[in-house]
Amino acid sequence: MARKNTPDSYGSVAKWFHWFMAVIIFGLIVAGLTMEALPNGPFKFKIFGLHKSFGITILMLAFFRLFWKMKNKAPTLPDSLNNVEKCLAHLGHGALYFLMFSLPLSGWMMSSAAGFPVSVFGLFTLPNLVAPDPRTKAEFIEIHENMAWLLIGLLVLHIAAALMHHFYHKNTILRRMLPFVK
Predict the structure, then answer these.
(1) pTM over 0.85
(2) How many domains does the chain have?
(3) What CATH number should be reported for the domain holding residue 64?
(4) How many CA atoms lie within 13 A of 71 on its CB side?
(5) Phi/psi of residue 180, each to 5°?
(6) Which residues neighbour 114 within 8 Å (Cβ) at sequence distance 6 or greater?
């Protein structure tokens, strides 16, 4: 499998970024939806710490992924897609990239405003982005939660579109991003 993208398929690096980040993002969504309901204690604080660490991991990977994307032209969209579908695909991917950057940043700001530093897997601690302030914390909680729901909605559409292209339109949209498929 080629490391770089070709006109017909994504390369191994783009596929690795896509699927590795998808697994992490899925885990972050599950943790985000369940961790508030956990009783206070070491397990809850561990989940919060992992959520923050993996969120920062997504932020770092998003920078590398965007750099890779700029250096490797994406495969061309099939001619069977009309201009509206092509535009929606580009808008959807742009929104996903926006959220891969803004969600971790809003979480980092939320933690800063709450007075809780963001430690990344206990290896290093990030500087606070904003001063501790209850009002700012509440604002970033709302921003972070709303963007998380937007991400969930976009991911549902993204998956549904990939499956529609594969099973209904029977084109190569899904196959060209699947791992181990040439």
Answers:
(1) yes
(2) 1
(3) 1.20.950.20
(4) 11
(5) 65, 15
(6) 132, 137
